Amino acid sequence: HRHLTGIEGLQPHEISFLLDEAEHWVEANRTHAAPDKRMAGLTQINAFFENSTRTLLSFEIAGKRLGADVVNMHAAQSSVKKGETLIDTAQTLNAMRADVLVIRHMSSGAVQLIADKVACPVLNAGDGWHEHPTQALLDALTIRRRRGSVAGQRVVICGDVLHSRVARSNILALTALAADVRVCAPSTLMPPAIERMFVTPFTDFDQAIEGADVVMMLRVQNERMDGGYIPSSREYRMRYGLTAERLARVPNALVMHPGPMNRGVEIDSVVADGTQSAITEQVEMGVAVRMACMDVLTRRARGVEGWA
Ligand code: CP
């Protein structure tokens, strides 16, 4: 089976294909077109070992819109709490004859480990610092719809780039689609050798934001700091926050944030709720993108010609 464990390994034409497929579902969801239950009879298991609002619910809604039987496994209420290993959990889910598995885990690489052990397609819903591929796809779709194209857009990704799977997947997707990607972070939260990912690094947000078409803010992830640098909220906002004053320098730029937001830290409320914000549109695109990914990945199981 083909999985979606990351953007890494996808060809630019495959990314564009998934966006084109998602586009179809955006319109269908908006117009309440006749339901297309192409996943009817398939069982989708969402196994989330880490908290989520957007990703879990949109995968669940996406599966239900396509007619799948969707069940959720919340790790906090599962036998993981009794010490069951990841591999044993994967084999248990596999034995239930799931047709598609959606996994979120706090450890980088955990989703690939599960993908190697099961007999169905696996979608990564976020693993540690590694990747969050459907987030990058929904972000690319949002940019493409608002700007007409991803190619040539100057996208500034600002915040805790080091710990961010959202940043990593977005860098891979946006550079593959020929965007001009800048990353901005305090030096302690910038991955080493980031230039090798074909982006331009900045530590000064005011310089980075110059000429931006899209400003993508990242959440300050206090739970991932591991005793490292934790800036005070006030200090962080002053140097790296998207305030109305900063945004005034790029009045045509699109504002994005994957959520959940720390309002008043990395982004001010007036900006998050302002006219330049595409944050709720990102959430809307999330359902369409997840419908597209699950449809495409289960085509072979359904005997339909396709990508996988
Ligand atoms: N953007 C995102 O992954 O949000 P959740 O953690 O709420 O799923």
What's the short story on this structure?
This protein is an alpha/beta fold.
Q: Can you give a write-up of this model?
A:
It is a single chain. Helix content is 37%, strand content 14%. It is built from eleven helices and nine strands. It has helices spanning 12-31, 54-65, 86-95, 110-115, 133-147, 165-176, 205-208, 233-240, 244-247, 269-272, 279-297; strands spanning 43-48, 69-74, 100-105, 122-127, 154-158, 180-184, 200-202, 214-217, 254-256. Helix 6 links the parallel strand 5 and strand 6. Helix 1 (12-31) crosses helix 11 (279-297). Bound molecules: phosphoric acid mono(formamide)ester. Phosphoric acid mono(formamide)ester binds at residues 52-55, 126, 135, 258-260.
SS element count, helices: 11
Helix content class: 25-40%
Largest sheet: 5 strands, parallel
Strand element count:
9
Structural class: alpha/beta
The ordered H/E elements are: HEHEHEHEHEHEEHEHHEHH
Distance between the termini: 7 Å
User: What is the molecular shape?
Assistant: globular
Distinct small-molecule ligands in the complex = phosphoric acid mono(formamide)ester
- Please indicate the percent range of residues in DSSP E strands (runs of 2 or more): 5-15%
The residue ranges in which pLDDT falls below 50 over 5 or more consecutive positions are none
| Mean pLDDT over the full residue set | 94
Strand order of the largest sheet: 7-6-5-8-9
Keywords:
9 strands; 37% helix; alpha/beta; four-stranded parallel sheet; 308 residues; binds phosphoric acid mono(formamide)ester; five-stranded parallel sheet
